[in-house]
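It is worth pausing here to work through a concrete case rather than discussing structure prediction in the abstract. The textbook approach is simple: state the sequence, then state the predicted structure, then interpret. We follow exactly that order.
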Amino acid sequence: MSGRAISLPGERERGQGVMMHTDRRQISDRRRPRLALALLGMGMVFAIPGAAWAQEAAEAAETVWTTDVAVDTLWVLVAGFLVFFMNTGFGCVEAGFCRAKNAVNILAKNFVVFGISSIAFWLVGWSLMFGDGTSWFGTSGWMLLGADNSPVTGDAYQGVYSSINWTGVPLFAKFFFQLVFAGTAATIVSGCVAERIHYRAFMIFAFVLVAIGYPVTGHWIWGGGWLAELGMWDFAGSTVVHSVGGWAGLAGILLLGPRIGKYRDGRVHPIPGHSMALAFLGGMILWLGWFGFNPGSTMGISGEGAAAVSHIVVTTNIACAAGLLAATITAWAVLGKPDFSMTINGALAGLVAITAPCAFVSVGASLIIGLIAGVLVVLSVMGFDKARIDDPVGALSVHLTNGVWGTLAVGLFATTAAPGGIDRNGLFTGGGFGLLGSQIVGVVAVGVFTLALSLVVWGVLKALGGIRVDPQGEMQGLDVTEMGMEAYPGDSIAHV
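Step two, the predicted structure:
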C-alpha cells in the first residue's frame, strides 16, 4: 500500500468539526489580548480617579499636619521672643528700684546675662537638662549634636532628648524657648546682689548657674528625672526657673552682706530707688512677657492647644491682677500708704505664683493663688529686712517666696478637669495629700541643691578674687567704679 491515507466513512465530517473547533479557538485566542486591553482601559478609567482622590487626601492630611507644625513653631518662637524681651523688663525694674549711680551696672548685667546664658546653655546646659541619661542629669546630645526628636522628622523616635519629644516643633525651636527660661533664672540673681557685686563675679556665677545648677534641677522635673517620676508638676517654672534663681540669689546675699548703711544702728533704713517711672515700665513689660512665658509652655497652639493657651492666658492675668491688688491693700494696711513699689512687686508675685499651676487650676483658684501671693510678697519683704537679708529690689520675695508658694499651690488646687493634662487632683479638689507631698519634696530638694551649689560657687569666687566692690567704690557707685560711665552724665541724680 502506498503511503496515502485512506478516509473511512464519517472521518471527513469529524475532521471538519475538529477544524471548526480549532478555528474558533484560534479566533478566541486572537481576541483575548483585545479584551484584556479593553478591560484594562475600563479599569484605568475608574482606578485613576480613585488613586488621585487617595493621593489628594494623603496630600491634604500631610498639608494639615505640616501647617500645624508651622503654626506651633511660630507660636513657640513668638512666645520665646516675648520671654526674651522680659530681660528688658527685669532691667528696668531693677534699675528703677536702685540708685541712679548703679543704673548702668544693673542694665549691663541684664543685657550681658543673656549672652552668657546662650553660650552656657548651648555648650552644657541643654544636654544636662534634656539629654537622655540618668534620673539625675542628662548625658547625651551635647551642643545640640543629638538627632532631632520632633515627630515631624519621622514616625519612629530616633533622638536623644526623649523627655521633650511630646511636642512636634523642631529641635531648635525647643532649644530657643528653653534657653530664654534659663536666662531668666540668671537674671533673677542680678536683682538680689545689686549695688555691691563685682561685675566679673556676677558673670562667672551666671555662667555656672546656667551651665550646671539650673539644668540639673530642671532635669529632675522637666527632663524626666527623679522628681518627675515621683509625680511633681511644675508647668512653666515656679520652681524650675523662679525658685532656682531665688535660691542662687539668696546664697549671693548671704556671702555679700548688706549694702552700706542699710542696717546701721540695728535698724532698717530704706534705700529708695531713683525712678519709679522706669520700674513701672519694667513691670508692664514683664506682665506682657508673661503671656509668652506661661502660655508658650504648651509648646503648641494648634488643635487642643488653642483651648489650653486661652485658659492659661486667663489664669495668668487673673493671678497677676489679684496679686497687685492684694499687695497694694496689704501695704496700705501695714505701712499706712499704698506703696507703688509693693504694687509692682505684687503683680510680679502673682505671676510667679501662677507659673507652676497655670494650666492645672481653675480661674477661681488662680484668683486665690494671686491674692495670697500679693500678701506674701509684702510680708516677705518685711521679714527679710528683719533678718538683715538685704534684697534691693525684692527679688527674693517675688521669685523665691512665691515660687515656693506657686509650686505648693499645684498640690492644693490642681484638677484633672483643667487642660494641662495633670493626672491627679490636689488636696482641695478631692485628691488627698499625694500630689502635695510630691510638691513639697520637690521644693525642698531643689532648694537644698541650688543653695548648696550656689554657696560653693560664690564662696570659691570670694576666695579667689572677691565678689564685693570696696566700700569707696560702693559709695561712689558701680557705674563709675565698675563700668567707667554714668547713666545720667552731668546730672546730679547720677550721684544719688
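Step three, interpretation. The chain has 14 helices and no strands. Residues 1-33, 35-54, 60-64 have pLDDT under 50 and may be disordered.
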